[in-house]
Write a structure and sequence with these properties.
138 residues, mainly alpha, 5 helices, 84% helix, transmembrane helix, transmembrane
Length: 138
Amino acid sequence: MSLHDRLPDRLRPWHLLMLAVFVAGAGLSAARNAPFPAGVGIQDLVLFTIEGLFGLVIFQFTVGNVWAAAVEYRNAGGSWRDLPFLAPVVLAVFAAATLYAVSGNVGVAASAAFWVFVGATAVTAVAVNVVVGYTEAE
């Protein structure tokens, strides 16, 4: 089997999204840092690549973990309309909107949203396990 025959099975929309995030990160870095009238050197290209990769790692860490939590919740028999799943999402969106309104910084808002989601998910998981434990013990 040739490599060409294998590619359609291996490439997923997630990979195209990751490529788009990398290109956007490298492009934003170029727009911010490039000495365009003077030309772009090797050091500039390395900087653009590193910043694009950094943006990709942050994207994978945040979006990938949130998506994994959603999929695991669904695989465990829950629905994405359940209160134990929606509560952390709603709190994270509220935190992001509030911090963006206060600071005007997307990075701060996204970071806060992620960590509020993680904390609220942890608290929700413990609470649900305690309630299920007491229910099964009766």
